[in-house]
Specification:
The chain is of the alpha/beta class. The chain folds into 2 domains: 2-61, no CATH class; 72-281, 3-Layer(aba) Sandwich (Rossmann fold). Helices cover 44% and strands 18% of the residues. The chain contains 10 helices and 7 strands. The protein has helices spanning 2-5, 10-30, 32-70, 73-83, 94-99, 134-141, 183-193, 215-226, 229-233, 244-250; strands at 103-107, 123-127, 148-153, 168-174, 194-205, 254-261, 274-281. A 7-stranded mixed sheet has the order 3-2-1-4-5-7-6, sandwiched between helices. α6 (134-141) links the parallel β2 (123-127) and β3. α2 crosses α3. The chain is elongated and about 85 Å long. The chain starts with a helix and ends with a strand. Bound molecules: S-adenosylmethionine (SAM).
């Protein structure tokens, strides 16, 4: 009861509000420029806070589509090497085995940049958290009628619990692990969904390994990532990661990989030239 009595009556509250508004009005009249700058910064912050992620997703899907059309054939050939193992695989699913096709899960599929690497009749499951890729993915898919989409999951690779354990023959990630939030979780999910002896194919850009000859690149990768500049522009991409120790730690029966410099088309992309390519077998 004591507590309630301390609440001021309505008149006092009204007077206080009027005084505050009068002070604000005087401030605005005395400093109109600063007020506009303050209001604009506040409005921009609210906009970025509410729509920033959405805007970045839209912009990234658009820019990724543009980049994919710029990638030279040499880069595709560079990627292609690890996909050659697909031709010797047979599906664990008797029906698909009969059809000589495979069930593949691609995590972070984007616009579907790897359609051309998949065998005829591939049953493809894709998972990607960015819904704005859908338009580009569908446009691109129209050129590959030989691939059958089984499921499209709009979710992070960390959150693909809906994909049954031991159910897919192959999992693919290309240029994805640089952006994931929890790499050990994604790679554990990959191992979980693969059938025994299933293959995990990865092509990822990584932290520069040659500290003697390419220390400037290594420095740029660190500075661009640590300042948040590169992750901001490229939707969470980190230039200074190396997924190999994580892949090894998750415990595949065999991991075969190599590091090499990828042929990338423009000078500023050289920061992402060091690549890791490989195949891990469950
Ligand atoms: C640089 S793009 C690569 C797209 C495509 N794989 C390629 O090779 O062109 C990165 C992709 O990873 C996706 N991505 C980002 N975070 C992810 C996560 N946590 N799980 C799965 N995919 C993710 C993005 O939406 C985007 O499609």
């Amino acid at each position: 009861m004591e507590y309630w009595k301390r609440i001021p009556d309505k008149e006092v509250v009204k007077e206080g509000v009027e005084l505050a508004f009068a002070a604000l009005r005087r401030h605005v009249q005395a400093r109109p420029k600063e007020t506009w700058v303050g209001l604009s910064v506040a409005a921009a912050s609210i906009f970025i806070w509410k729509y920033g992620q959405d805007f970045r997703h839209r912009y990234f899907a658009w820019i990724n589509n543009k980049f994919n059309h710029m990638k030279p054939q040499e880069y595709e050939d560079f990627k292609h090497k690890v996909f050659t193992c697909l031709k010797d695989l047979t599906s664990h699913d008797p029906k698909l085995k009969e059809e000589k096709s495979l069930r593949i899960l691609e995590i972070g599929a984007g616009i579907g940049a790897n359609f051309d690497k998949y065998p005829n009749n591939t049953r493809l499951i894709v998972a990607d958290p960015n819904p704005y890729f859908e338009k580009y993915f569908s446009e691109n898919k129209a050129n590959f009628p030989n691939i059958k989409i089984e499921t499209i999951i709009v979710a992070k690779g960390e959150d693909i619990d809906m994909v049954e354990s031991n159910s897919v023959d192959v999992v693919v990630t290309t240029l994805v692990l640089c952006s994931v939030t929890d790499m050990p979780k994604v790679i554990s999910q990959i191992k979980r969904v693969l059938v025994p002896a299933g293959k995990y194919i990865f092509v990822e850009h990584v932290h520069e390994w040659d500290r003697n000859n390419h220390r400037i690149r290594r420095f740029l990768q660190d500075i661009l990532t640590v300042t948040g500049f590169w992750p901001f522009i490229f939707d969470g991409c980190h230039l200074n990661r190396n997924p190999l120790p994580v892949i090894d730690a998750v415990g595949f029966s065999n991991v075969s990989s190599n590091q090499d410099y990828a042929p990338l088309p423009v000078w500023w992309m050289k920061v992402a030239q060091p690549h890791l390519r490989g195949v891990a077998t469950k």
